[in-house]
Write a structure and sequence with these properties.
Helix content: 25-40%
Strand content: 5-15%
CATH architecture: Alpha-Beta Barrel
Number of helices: 4
CATH class: Alpha Beta
Shape: globular
Radius of gyration: 16 Å
Number of strands: 5
Largest sheet: 5 strands, parallel
């Protein structure tokens, strides 16, 4: 099972999944610890084996730290993914990508805007790049590498 984790948009303030308080942190997704707490709770209570963090909301380095905390708490077999929806500049996406490379994320989805931006990130970062925002017809796909 995969969890798609959002910085608090759909949970009442001070609650975690299932309406129960977090065990640690403030419980309102104000920091990386709060997101890692939620991820750990979903893993322990529901058996979630991977997560995709909806990035592009908090400071990019705080979002990278959330992934680091999840890796530390849940181990190397837990799947990590991040999707900032193309909101980061190429430079920011490269900085984050290089920071999280050692975590071995499964993929980095739409780290920068556009196919060219994502390609530039891919040249500088050793993480598979995924997209779901750009190609909408066959001609939008670039040539095979």
């Amino acid at each position: 099972m995969i969890a798609y984790l959002f910085w608090r948009y759909d949970r009442p303030r001070g609650t975690a999944a299932f309406g129960r308080p977090f065990q640690a942190g403030s419980g309102d997704d104000a920091c990386a610890e709060d997101m890692a707490d939620l991820c750990q709770q979903l893993h322990e209570e529901l058996g979630v084996k991977a997560m995709k963090l909806k990035g592009g909301v908090m400071d990019p380095m705080e979002e990278a730290r959330a992934l680091e905390l999840c890796r530390d708490r849940l181990g190397d077999d837990f799947g990590l993914r991040i999707d900032p929806n193309g909101t980061w500049s190429v430079a920011t996406a490269v900085r984050v990508g290089q920071r999280i490379e050692a975590l071995h994320p499964e993929y980095f989805e739409d780290p920068a805007w556009g196919l060219e931006g994502n390609a530039a990130v891919r040249k500088a970062v050793r993480i598979p790049i995924a997209t779901n925002m750009y190609p909408n017809k066959f001609d939008d796909l670039g040539p095979a590498a």
